[in-house]
Design goal:
The protein is of the alpha+beta class and about 725 residues long. The protein contains 28 helices and 21 strands. It has a five-stranded mixed β-sheet with strand order 1-2-5-4-3. Helix 3 packs antiparallel against helix 4 and helix 8 packs across helix 19. The radius of gyration is 28 Å and the shape is globular. It starts with a helix and ends in a 5-residue tail after the last strand.
Length: about 725
């Protein structure tokens, strides 16, 4: 097809996806926006070779068909790159399409400008600015999520280092935000695509296993579903029943978190029932009635009931989940939703507002969250990455429902304390909190709350925020307010602490990089550098302790056996093209947080004149890739067996006489392995061993693990990450 034919086909597909009730006037506005954008981007191509206009058309299609927004958002999506990439201005957009569309395009342009800024930690700060736009028009962030989704779908045409950077940023920022917006399907796809580019081999293995599992268990699920269908039909419910497969990322994440294999995950498939609600009966009642019909057929697991019909999630999600014992002895999860609930679950915020009527308080947790966010963002004047860490946690946390003494309900993350509740009510109440009464019983402010608790906050005019409060609060709002008060009182201490630390660095003649600071933060288990500076100023940590620890720095000269290249953008070339430069070996430092060895899937991040090398799946690496995307350095191992690298192996099995000798005997026979320490514990006939060894690469390590696994009584052998003592 010619370019013109491709563009025409894509745009006709977009027009066909507009809501059926779209007026002819609005349709003509969409056509006008297309013609304007097509002319503005004339002759420009994406890296894939396609005409650039196909990208905004695709974003607009996602916005209308996958998120469910209207023509204003479709037009804004079509125009979202015009101001950034052409000579047209926001004023031009306003004169042609009106102030509302101009405002949305302006918000999207500002986000893109911040995201493209070089030579500083941009992603976290840009995310904060993205969130600020929510206070003005939530459609800005929904269109931005659609823009990111299309970029992820077409990421294969980008060079590897940009794939890693964009995938890391997506997993760290956009997937949690899509989750909070209630865009479940998009959140899942963003996670899967991020994993596909960050860990392609692991992604393929798990995807293949999921397909095999689904194929092998199809008959089991068909037999399970059939009696449910008959019962629903008999009771007059129009419905659809589908078997839902767990996403590749969710399986991978569960395997990583629990250190288990694929075969140990038992909820790969679940059954979803979507029914057409009868108008004369409450949807909640109908959900519980279907629950009753299912439990008449299969025995339920009481502790696995999830009632998000009575109290929807903060992102608007409504459903009733239960787990029952299937006919073949398998636990099977069943999700019950009305068609309205299902649309909200898949399309999130847009569907939530579509179904909300005047005076309707359903799902209002979303509105409360949006309203409170601006206050928190404007208060926060801390490091942007600190903010992102706190906020990301609140995006994904499970929720609990709490009540004030007068019966008003508040939603907080699971694990929230009485002090978090105090700050949720009002900043001043949090700042002066001295304790609480939970269900009429006196508790300290650090008391962890349970869903259903009634909480009364006790205050005193003499109370002021304390630094130790940060050790137990969990909400971003509480941390923001405490840190704001703390900074006002402690700026001088921080300044003095910086002076002390810098004098130590100068005295030891260490390079002015972030490495000494990271080493000290890890050693003293501090959350951030501000805590270190205050501790130094208050003499909780002495200068002598810092000096002693920094003098023990590991010698990283073996890193000369690395071969690296990194990429720097050339502004004189196409914006997606790059040129190559070399990185000298003595600039490279192995990160102690994940301790990679040759053969591991690794990534380099250039920081302060050094290249920090992490495993790609290291949480700190994911965090840094999201916040320092322009600093990513592709790393390539060179085969070399002169130096050894530390690794840790965990062994579990059935205890017997001689098992330790057998394990150490296997290791001693390996010429490429040296033992550092061996520790075994036994309890009730089960043993667990931790081996600290030095080894050349992952090939040798995997060979050793396989030999240990063959020893009689050994049931599990895993490599684990470097332990912090």
């Amino acid at each position: 097809m010619t370019d013109e034919e491709l563009i025409k086909s894509a745009f006709e597909d977009l027009l066909a996806s507009l809501p059926k009730n779209t007026t002819e006037e609005n349709k003509q506005k969409v056509i006008k926006a297309f013609k304007f954008a097509n002319e503005a981007h004339q002759g420009v191509r994406r890296r894939s070779g396609e005409p650039y206009i196909l990208h905004p058309i695709s974003v607009a299609k996602i916005v209308t068909s996958e998120i469910g927004l209207g023509t204003t958002s479709v037009i804004s999506s079509m125009l979202h790159d015009v101001v950034e990439d052409t000579d047209y201005t926001v004023e031009d957009i306003e004169s042609l399409f009106g102030p509302k569309i101009a405002s949305i395009v302006d918000g999207l342009t500002k986000i893109s400008e911040v995201m493209s800024t070089e030579n500083r930690s941009i992603q976290a700060e840009s995310f904060r600015k993205i969130l600020l736009t929510l206070a003005e028009d939530v459609r800005v962030i929904l269109i931005k999520i659609a823009d990111r989704l299309h970029n992820m779908r077409t990421l294969s045409s980008m060079p590897m280092h940009k794939q890693i950077k964009i995938a890391g940023e997506t997993l760290y920022i956009y997937a949690p935000l899509a989750h909070r917006m209630g865009l479940h399907a998009i959140k899942t796809e963003l996670e899967d695509l991020s994993l596909k580019y960050e860990h392609p081999e692991e992604y393929k293995v798990i995807a293949d296993k999921i397909r095999d599992y689904e194929r092998e268990n199809t008959l089991i699920y068909e037999n399970f579903i059939e009696p449910i269908k008959e019962s629903l039909n008999k009771n007059g419910y129009k419905h659809t029943i589908t078997a839902r497969t767990k996403s590749v990322y969710s399986v991978w994440n569960k395997m990583q978190r629990r250190n288990i294999g694929f075969d140990e995950i038992y909820d790969i498939l679940a059954v979803r029932i979507v029914f057409e609600a009868l108008p004369e009966l409450p949807e909640k009642w109908q959900c519980w009635n279907i629950y009753s019909l299912i439990t008449d057929l299969y025995n339920p697991k009481p502790e696995r009931i999830r009632d998000w019909v009575s109290t929807p999630k903060a992102n608007g999600y409504e459903a009733l989940h239960l787990t029952v014992m299937g006919p073949t002895g398998q636990w099977i999860e069943v999700q019950i939703r009305s068609k309205r609930m299902d649309e909200i679950a898949e399309k999130g915020l847009a569907a939530h507002w579509k179904y909300k009527t005047d005076g309707d308080e359903r799902n209002s947790e979303l509105d409360k969250w949006l309203a409170s966010m601006k206050e928190m963002l404007e208060l926060r004047d801390a490091n942007a990455l600190d903010f992102l860490d706190d906020f990301k946690m609140n995006l994904y946390e499970k929720e609990i429902r709490l009540f004030t003494p007068k019966g008003y309900m508040k939603t907080l993350p699971k694990g929230a304390t009485a002090l978090d509740f105090a700050y949720e009510i009002h900043t001043e109440i949090g700042d002066t909190c001295i304790g609480a009464k939970v269900n009429h019983k006196l508790v300290p402010m650090s008391h962890k709350l349970q869903s259903g608790d009634q909480v009364e906050i006790l205050t005193s005019d003499k109370q002021r925020p304390q630094r130790e409060w940060l050790d137990f609060v969990v909400t971003a709002k509480a941390k923001s307010n405490i840190m704001a008060a703390f900074r006002r009182d402690h700026k001088e201490l921080v300044r003095y602490g910086i002076h002390i630390f810098e004098s130590i660095i100068k005295e030891l003649e260490l390079p002015p990089t972030s490495e000494p600071l990271k080493k000290i933060l890890t050693h003293f288990k501090l959350k951030n550098k501000e805590d270190l500076y205050v501790s130094l100023a208050e003499k909780n940590i002495t200068k002598e302790e810092i000096v002693a620890e920094l003098k023990q720095r590991a010698d990283n000269k073996f890193m000369k056996y690395w071969k690296l290249q990194f990429f720097r953008s050339n502004k004189n070339e196409h914006k997606d093209e790059e040129k190559h430069d070399s990185v000298a070996g003595d600039e490279i430092v192995v990160s102690p947080c994940c301790n990679p060895i040759p053969g591991d899937d690794v990534v380099g991040i250039s920081m302060g004149g050094k290249v920090m090398v992490h495993k790609r799946k290291c949480p700190e690496a994911i965090r840094l890739m999201a916040s320092h995307g322009d600093k990513i350095v592709p790393v390539e191992w060179v085969t070399h067996k002169v130096m050894s690298f530390p690794a840790i192996i965990q062994i579990k099995g059935i205890d017997r006489i001689g098992i330790v000798n057998d394990v150490t005997g296997v290791i001693s026979k390996e010429s490429d392995v040296n033992m550092q320490t061996v520790h075994f514990d036994t309890k009730n006939g089960i043993f667990e061993g931790i081996l600290h060894i030095y080894i050349h690469n992952t090939k040798d390590l995997n060979s050793l693990i396989a030999k240990i696994a063959d020893i009689e009584g050994v049931k599990q052998v895993n490599r684990i990450e470097n332990q912090v003592n």
